[in-house]
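Support case: user asked for a sample of complex input and structure output to validate their parser. Sending the pair below.
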Amino acid sequence: MPVDVGLATTSNQLITGGLVAYSLAFVGYAVRAAFGVRVPDADAAPTPARVLVGATSPAGSATAGAPTSVALSAGAPPSGSAEGTVLDGDAARARRGREAVGPRDPATRFGEVVGKVAVVLTVIGWVAHGAAIATRGLAVHRLPWGNMYEFTLALTFAAVAAFLGVLARHRRQSLGLLGVFVMIPVLLALGLAILVLYVAPAPLVPALHSYWLGIHVTAAIIATGVFTVATASTVMFLVADHYAAAVSRGRSVRFAAIARMMPDPGVLDRVAYRAYALAFPIWTFAVVAGAIWAQYAWGHYWQWDPKETWSFITWVIYAGYLHARATAGWRGRKAAYIALLGFATVLFNFFVVNIFITGMHSYAGV
Amino acid sequence: MTSTSRPDLQALEAEVDELGTRQRVRRPTLASALGWVRWAWYSLTSMRTALILLFLLALAAIPGSIIPQRGSANPSAVRDFVVRHPTLAPVLDHLGFFNVYGSPWFAAVYLLLFISLAGCVVPRARRHWEMLRAAPPATPRNLYRLPAHQKWTTELPPQQAVREAAVFLRTRRFRIAQHSSSVAAERGYLRETGNLLFHSALLVVLLGIAVTSGFGFTGTVLLKEHDSFADTQIAYDSFSPGRMVDVGALPPFTFRLDDFHASFVRSGPTRGAAAGYQAEVTYTARPGVRPKVTTVTVNHPLSVDGVNVYLTGHGYAPHFLVRDGSGRSFDETVPFLPRDGVFTSQGVVKLPDARPHQLGISGFFLPTAAADPFTGQPISVFPAPDNPAVVLGVFSGDLGLDSGVPQSVYTLDTSRMKLLAKGVLRPGQTLTLPGGQGSVTFLGFSQFAEFQLTKDPGKPIVLGAICAAIAGLLASLGIRRWRVWVRAEPDDTGRTVVEVGGLPRTDASGGFAEAFDRLVAALRTRIPPEPAGPAPFPERAGSPSLQVTSDQEG
Ligand code: HEM
């Protein structure tokens, strides 16, 4: 069937619209963070994050004496908090958080409104984004993930979906700043897709004609989207945890202004872990589905094609991350670094392997 | 306060710690062989070693994705690499870098990992089995020292409160042990079951792979239209059997390529890309049974007698009628291998029986021939046979077939031959050789298909194990495992004091506090707190540093 040029154009317009909405949302999240609004997730009952590690294995973190995240270990005396349970480690911050409950000053209220508008803009952008993908699919009469442009569209869509999911689950917590950290990669990737990776819509090469394509690639896209949000959360966790640790030792930190805006490190760590724990089985499934598809298409489950190899490396590293969380001395920051390494392999697989290393998966279309 | 509560909790943790994070065995100081063996074994099966081995595995996999590999989709890549890196290549070759995934060091990493895995899973399974049959551990004396704790007074008598708690916890799918004044409860055993299932399934995957590499085989064969294939070793163009395969007793099926059809995108930006190809084949599963007709396409292999037949490539086989100087004629249809996306195909025809001299033809087949706009040379501009032509050079002399050195059927050794004639032919045209040495007529072409045949007896094992692994993973990552104790005792004033303590087991996901709070909130509807009494207990007394409170989620 011929490509429907009209629909394809509509798709391009929709994605541009989505990009505009996302950009505005990004500014909104940043403004909100800049106005220092922390929704008082900690007003009545402070966050339990410290217990995460402290309670599950005091033996581990105490005896190993390892540099697990200080904010997460029971030993770190929280400073400046009356109950001794607030993790902020920064009295001013804690106070500001609590003040936000009471009568708010106009600036704070402004920040809050902007934050809400940013969420609405994200949703609008996401709907346009989804519509762009759908119209592209209708234009080419197939699942629209056959080349890197389409792939990037789908990945970023999944990432924003995962982000909105996190926001919905943690409505009461001030995760707005996560929006900044998610929107940066999303905007970069979309910009790259539109400016560099764009290819006009076209039918697929025969090797891609299989419903395993739908299964395998869809799973990989979802997992990557969720990994993206998890990574954003991990990066924030590292910043926040570093800051909390420094403050509790009375040391000053660079970029404190940004660090002080971070949500609670415990919450960030938890959001990240849950995302990894969701994405890992999906990734596992994606790799397996890919192997099954490879068997139909090429007669081998597994040929150590570069793409396969890097998917495997990603899988192994995230397995390492999950192990690290259960290994004394590796919890907290070290585990977080492993997770970042995992995402680095995801990016490598997508950008470097697709474009620079040829294998049987050479369908990047760039 | 902190200092007193610590050891208590540590003891509890040690008691419940049945994860892989086992106690580390001290490095033996004396030269006791057994001590060393034991130490080595414990080190190998520790979580930390598993972690390191996982990293090593990831690291070891990298070079194979960067350095070209033998036996990969593009075998000439290794040759090109060797040419480009004449000093480095022999070293890399010696270290197995052109065959990373078959190299001893790669095998060492994954075998160690799997030994570690087995050494880790077996004892854990045993402990888990015991744990599954045991009652939840007795109620600790000081519940307030647990990571989560709540306390209230009720008007229910202690016995009744304990009973209520027991019933309640059972409906919440806790396994319980009821004591005189308390209930011990635990749930989430399936988490460890899932974890063990996942890890054991990985071992089974390896087993399945081993079965395939021992008892499976893979081979390739190239068939022109109307050619037949019988499953014997010599019929393959290349064949690599597993170690345990009896090559004399391959499955006795045959098949024939009746027709091949390829179509290409004719317009748009991907003009010339393959749009689809299919092979019509007739196959006979066993001698004596009725032949069946089927279509093999890229994603739809033919499965016959435990062997899968995949369509992996295709091309053109030009058809020539060659006459030699003695007047003898040879009818040759020879596959020419595609060299590029427009199917510029290269091949040779060897006629060792031609007289007075052997004849050899080297040439190109161009499916859609056109003149190169710059050089005027004939080139192919589209992969479909819209305007087929061949570009030939005809040689006479000695083909060198008797020299004993094996020759590829796709290359012509012209060192002892001389060029007689060259030319471009359309179907039906003839190139006459000078001096009455004969002629070459290009009659037309047929198509050929390449098939890969694979027998993979480990497949059901691998597939089943992977399904089990994913199920186990979901259980392991999605289930919370925790213990709850409820105690109800009268205090000095005769009121019933209810105390609840909770202990997470592997609370990697966090959120234990919320789950605990939700549970206790529900329990309070069963064991209602006294209506506003005098000075109730503060709700979460106890050691501040171990305090669990909830955020507002859920
Ligand atoms: C082939 C190598 C291995 C892979 C791919 C792997 C993968 C995983 C994954 C994905 C998890 C997280 C899911 C879960 O909690 O069940 C996990 C957990 C775990 N693994 Fe492994 N593993 C491997 C080898 C090992 C070895 C050798 C050990 C023993 C030392 C081990 C011990 C554990 C333990 C104790 C957990 C539980 C952690 C927890 O519950 O939080 N694993 N593994």
